[in-house]
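Sharing a chain and its predicted structure for anyone who wants a worked example. Both blocks are below, sequence first, tokens second.
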Amino acid sequence: MSTLLPQTLLVTGAIAWGLGWLPLHHFASVGLVGMPLVLLVYGLLSFIALPVLWRERRVWLPQRNGLLAIAVCGGGATAALVTALAIGEVVRVMLLFYLAPVWGVLGGWLLLGERLTLLRVAALFLAMLGIALTLGISSELLQPLSGSDWLALAAGLGFSLNNLATRAADQVPLASKTLAPFVGSALIAAVLCPLLGEYPPSLSFELSWQIALMSLGWLLSMAAVQYGVSHIEAGRAAVLVVFELVAAVLSSAWIGAQAIGIHEWTGAALVTLAALIASWPERPALTVIRSPSL
């Protein structure tokens, strides 16, 4: 089966995620951040998710543990990342979150038995070098971990585990795998909002349709990413999803009227090269054909 379509959808969904800071920045300007925003967006999406999950229950029931892992890991990763971005420094949060490729490659090797080839390792190091150049790694980033840092690390690990669970739960329908993290995020936010004393503000008509539009965007991008990771090895998918980071950093620099220097462009080029290497089909073993004896 050709991997062109899943790779294309995965990269497209990752770029859409990387641009997700735009609506988050808008909602933050009106006081809607963190768990209340997660509760509203993913609570709305849960109204779509629950009927679909119920209708497909007979198909995913044999792999219900895998679907539960997708809901918990994917939902937890979303809740942790949104919270970390709300309370922490964006650069540190994105850097720590994007240790996810490391977890993805190692997890695919340890848990799913995927081959840790030299080419895959080289692509991973190129991606991480591209991350370092894009973010402008400096000594200021090497500080003791704060609460938001731990949340970012947890988000990256949860995202990688979500990808591994998605790959392993091969009999679960794509729709269920796509929608389960929405329910997980909504339930986590519903528990944390009272514990943190944070509640959604009163919604105007304008804010309501904006939340609905953002929810639709998350739904489409999640479907694209889930389809991609369902049809690509976890280690390869982990490198391709780094496109999210490039989209986030470069778009924030562009729209924020910040200069995009040689480091950013070089980092983006390295990540792109890593993605191309990771997506390159492996050469099959040669078959030796012996001539019949005369």
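Comments welcome. The CA atoms of residues 164 and 234 lie 6 Å apart.
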